[in-house]
Amino acid sequence: MAAAKMSVAEVEQFLRDEFPQAFGGDDITIESADGQTCLLRQRFSERMLRPGGTVSGPTLMALADFAMYVVLLSAIGPIGLAVTTNLNINFLRKGQPGQDVLAEARLLKLGKRLAVGEVKLLSGTSPDPIAHVTSTYSIPNV
């Protein structure tokens, strides 16, 4: 895969301008993105929890999807109409309340029209993933 076409700062500015509903607050930060991998952090908040005190599935799925979008943008540049065509998630263990959730995404294959990647979701500083995600994005013909 080629070098990044967008830096972290460029991806952040693009998202603030074009997708503020997903990246308008300060709950998610992009810690790194290099065209092949990225690391996102979602700061803990009570809104992440489901009854029973665990991090909710919708929270994890949204963060994983967003991480794939970020790594893809860093690889292909500001193509906002790239969309998810498939997302599979395996919940592996309970995400702990009070802990940030980290999303480590990496592209497995980047083609002209499709990108395939995976995301490992982690709770706090634990090395054991709380979920594993595979995802496919459709890249529009520009």
TrEMBL record:
SUPFAM superfamilies to which the protein is assigned, alphabetical: Thioesterase/thiol ester dehydrase-isomerase
Domain of life: Bacteria
InterPro entries xref list: HotDog_dom_sf, PAAI_dom, Thioestr_dom
Pfam families the record matches: 4HBT
Membrane-spanning parts: 66-89
Keywords: Hydrolase, Membrane, Transmembrane, Transmembrane helix
Gene Ontology molecular function, alphabetical: 1,4-dihydroxy-2-naphthoyl-CoA thioesterase activity
Assigned GO CC terms: cytosol
Signal peptide (UniProt feature, chain positions): none
Ranges for domain Thioesterase: 52-124
UniProt cross-references to NCBIfam families, sorted A to Z: unchar_dom_1
Record-given protein name: PaaI family thioesterase
Native organism: Bradyrhizobium rifense
